[in-house]
Structure formats: C-alpha cells, structure tokens
Amino acid sequence: MATIELQPSVTGKPRELQGFLNRTLYHPAARRLARALAATPITPNMVSVFGAMMVVATGILYARIGTPAAIAAGFALHLLWHVVDGADGDLARLTGRASPSGEVVDGLCDYGGHVVLYLLLGALLDDTLGAFAWVLAVGAGGSRIIQSVFAESSRRSYQW
User: What is this structure's pTM?
Assistant: First the structure.
C-alpha cells in the first residue's frame, strides 16, 4: 500500500459558523475519525457511502422495527452519522483527496440516505395518518434540504 502524505490541518469549519454540538462534539470527533482513517485504504467516498447506509439503517430501525430499543438505537446511529458526515470531508482534506466529484458523492449520499429515511417514515405514518403522512414527510425532507443548502451557501460565502 502506498503511503499517503498528510496535508496540513485544514479540516473543520470556521468556529463562528458552528453550532454548539458541532463545535464541541461532532466536528472534533469527525477530525479524530479522519485522522484514524488517514493511514488506511478507506477513501472519503467510502466514508460518505457508509454514512448513507447509517441513515438508511436509522430509518429501518425507526420505521420497520419500531421497538423502543430500536428507536433508541436509531437515534444513537443518527447522532453518530453527524460524526461520519464530517469525517468524509476531513479525510479528503487531510489526505489531499478533496475534489469536486467527492463533494457530489458526499451530497448524493447525504441527501439519498435522508430521502430513504423520510420515505420509510412516511410509509409508517401513512398507516395512521393517510395522505397527510406524505405531506409531513415531504415537508420534513424539504426543510432539511433548504437548511442544508442555506448552511453550505452561508459557509462558502463567509469563507469567500
């Protein structure tokens, strides 16, 4: 296996753009995970795909298994997803593998995993709420997309 020359620490987002949990928990844990993965053959895109699988698993735990223990496990898994979601970009920057195509893969994995999550929740709620469940699912998914796009565009504008 070829050795990877680590780039200077350029990971993380400006402190003033981070919420409390991101600043104190998720981003530091993501950086530690990225550093641990840097010397392995795991690529940033692999981390992105793993993150999408975590969100899909969360949806299955919430909507298909649905026991209190499964819901608690799904919640924990979704919290851990935030760490993995940050680690892919940190790993890419840390190892000099950041690229526009990697950003696209990351976005597709983030949105794709959450689309599946909201579809699973909509299907679950459809049994009790009928068509209104889909209004809620689409509304929740749409609001997440708007928030994500706004946060990313704000970060890019700020850094520019």
Answer: 0.84
